[in-house]
Structures are given as structure tokens and as C-alpha cells.
Amino acid sequence: MVLRGPNGAGKSTLLRVLAGLIPPLSGRIDLNGCGHKNRDDFQEMIAFAGHLDAIKPQLTVAENLRFWADLFGSNAFDQTMQDFRLVEISDRLSHTCSAGQKRRLGLARIAVTSRPLWLLDEPTVSLDTEITAQFTALIDQHCAAGGMALIATHIDLGLNSSTELYLEALTRKTLQSLPESDPFLKGDWT
Amino acid sequence: MKALLIRELRLALRSGGGAGLGLAFFLIVVILVPFGVGPDPKILAQIAPGTLWIGALLACLLSLDRLFQTDSEDGTLDILALSPLPLEMLVAVKAFAHWLTTGLPLVIAAPVLAITLSLPTETYIWLIASLALGTPALSFIGAAGAAITVGVRRGGLLLSLLVLPLYIPTLIFGAKAAALASGGGDPMPALMLVAGLSLFTVALTPFAAAAALRSHLG
């Protein structure tokens, strides 16, 4: 599923809410029959890639990915290193890598976690066309294997089959009609 | 869990990590004291436990504000929150790594520095014991403080204000244990209290820090 909308429409916020990082103001999220309130089981199913690549500049490329592979208990480390063409730069310190190489490392983390739902926020920023095509193929492969992916993007990825969700930019009026969440402002505690 | 601990230690030891910082600060403070107070061995021996403890406490504080902040800035914290490792465990591992890279070197360096403060030799064992039992409390209380101030830019000042009052009991009993030993008293009760404080904070602060991190993410 592809998520579209102008800057500031709330694409990233929606992805963070779906990842269980921000509690929703109202409503509930169900994933394979598991509600978002059941946080541990819910988040076990999610791989999230935000604007930031979660890379430690002092560690080498391989050390960065190895850490995530170990933490998520994955054995796909070698395969992922090859898929994302990270093998040739595996011994480089991450802070010497280019923006595109860092992005590749950030996305490799998604593949290494082997979780069913991928939440991707602008995944193709600073990737070259060849890698973008490869990554698109990987998403198709993931979805064909029964996985899900929700991608916020401005470009046309050319995925095999995808639905589009368009977020309108929030106007002042819609903001005012949102439920008030601060108990102090609501006057509950006075 | 092991992966996280190894990563933390590796990060601390690589350039830009905080491992050497606390130790260097500790050395400087303690070495400067005799110059400021004068070389009288009697006075120095009397203030030695307090000086060493205050030095250790401030050295610990120095590297704390980066404990969660770097992870928050580069997006690592989001991913760690989604990892199979509970946030409470994450905090505990990070605080433990902080102790290994900051607290433990201080414990090892303390007896060497105690020589410059002419602390009686038979007191060393008590000084080491009090620091070894007390510094985990410094790291774990500090972790809670660092988690609360993680969203604040340059949160070091706020962190110090939050954490220093909580450090005071550890400081009092830790320094007292070493001072009692050098003054010929029984250091055991004070030492037990320090150990108790450490166990208490190790057990409780990960939960407080994890709650703070969750509210920061949201």
C-alpha cells in the first residue's frame, strides 16, 4: 500500500502511530487480530524505517547491520549484505559512507528483521535508480510471500500491485475538530 | 542482549565515545586537590574519602547526558523500541554498559589516586568496596535522569539538577564508609546502606526510565 499526500499531511505521523510509537488519539489498530494496546506482540510484527537510518557513525557497515541482525535474532545477515550490495563497503566506517550508501544500510535493516509488516517512510530518498528498482523488487517479493508494506513516498515505485491512500493536508478547521487530548485543557483536573 | 552490550562497549571505546572522559576528569580533580588544599598529609587523609567520592560522582555525571540522546537523534531509539528486547531491559543494559566504561575504571583508579591524598593503606579496601558498591547506583539513577531529559537539547544542566539530589544519599553513605574506615570506626553499616541503595536503584530505575522513554517517543 502506498501512502501519498503533501508535506505536513501526516504521513510520517500515521506511520509512527501504526508502529505503536505514538498512541492514537482515538480509534484502535488491529494487526492480524492483535490490538495496538497489546504492545509487545503488536510491535513484534513491525519493521519500521523512518527518515533517520539509525546508523552509528563510529561503527563499520557490517558491525551496524550485524548488531540489528543479532538483536532481532535473524540469520539473514549474509544474504542481506549481498542483496543491498553492502559487501564491498562492509569494512568502511559508516560516517565515511555517502547518503545513498547509508540509506541502503538503513533499508537493509528492514530486510534483516524478517517481520510481516514493513512501514517505510520515504525509503527511496538518495537511492540511485538501479537500487530503487532492486528494492521495489524486494518489496514485491516480500508481499508475494504474504508480507505487507505501507510506504510513504512521492515517486512512483512501479510496484506490482498496490493500493493508494491519499492524505489531505490538515486545515485549521480539521485540527480544531480533533478530540482534545490534554486533560488540563479539558478541565478534568480542576 | 549480548549484542546490545557489545555494541555499547564498542561505541564507548571508539573515538567520540565517553569512556576516557570520566576517568580523565576524575584524575584531574583528585590530583588538583592537594595543590588547592596544601600538602599537609593529616588534612588530606581526612578529606580523601569525600574528595574521591565527589570526583567519582561528577565524573559519572559527565557522560550521562549522551546515554540516550545519541540514540534518539539518529533514530536508533525508535528501532530499539520495536525490537524484541523490552525497553526496561534496554535501559538496564545501557546503564550497565555505562557503569562498565565509567564506574569500573574509577573504582580501579581510586586506590592509585588515594596515594596522592595520603589515605591510610588499610583503608583502601574499604574505599574500593564503597565505590564498587556505590557507583552502580550512580549509573542507574543517572540513566533514569538521562531518559527523562532525552528530548531536551543540551539537557545536561537539567539532568544535573534532576540527578544530583538523588545522588546525595549514595554520596553520604559511600564517603562515610570510607571515612569511618580511615577514622577507626566500623564501616559495615554505611557500606550495607550503599549496597542497598544500589540494589534498589538497579531494580527500580529501569522501569522509570523505560516509562520516560515511551512518553518521549510518543
Global geometry of chain A: globular
Our count of helices of chain A gives: 8
Shape of chain B: elongated
Number of domains of chain B: 1
How do the helices and strands follow one another from N- to C-terminus of chain B?
Answer: HHHHHHHHH
Distance between the termini of chain B: 24 Å
Helical run tally of chain B: 9
Oligomer: heterodimer
- Would you report the number of β strands of chain B? 0
Secondary-structure element series of chain A: EHEEHEHHHEHEEHH
What value does the average pLDDT of chain A take?
A: 81
Largest sheet of chain A, described in full? 5 strands, parallel
Q: How many whole angstroms does the radius of gyration of chain A measure?
A: 18 Å
Short description:
The complex is a heterodimer of chains A (190) and B (218). With 190 residues, chain A is of the alpha/beta class. Helix content of chain A is 38%, strand content 13%.
What does this structure look like?
The complex is a heterodimer of chains A (190) and B (218). Chain A is an alpha/beta fold and 190 residues long. Chain A is 38% helix and 13% strand. Chain A contains eight helices and seven strands, in the order βαββαβαααβαββαα. Chain A has a five-stranded parallel β-sheet, sandwiched between helices. Chain A has a two-stranded antiparallel ribbon with strand order 2-3. In chain A, a hairpin with a 2-residue loop joins strand 2 (30-31) and strand 3. The longest helix of chain A is centred in the C-terminal third of the chain and has 16 residues, at 129-144. The model of chain A has no long low-confidence stretch (mean pLDDT 81). Chain B is mostly helical. Chain B has one domain. The radius of gyration of chain B is 18 Å and the shape is elongated. The A-B interface holds A 16, 19-23, 40, 43-44, 46-48, 50-59, 63, 66-68, 70-73, 109 and B 2-4, 6-7, 10-11, 14-17, 73-76, 78-86, 217-218.
